[in-house]
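Record 1 of the preview.
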Amino acid sequence: MNKIGIKVFKYRGQKFILAENESGSVPRFRIKKYGIAFIFIKKNLSARKRNLELHRLITGKRVRSKKVKDVELTM
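->
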């Protein structure tokens, strides 16, 4: 069964929702919508790689951006 860990936090006034998933083909991505940044990252990355990627996704530095269609978010 897939377990997803979700954490909500603020960094420099920006709201973030971090979802950690055990499986999936994409190791990490970020979506910014409704004033909140949603970050999805694989749980099984090494600790060093996970921290590096998480920091990149939080700060938005060296992250490629692509146009994303409207996505309906339900919680």
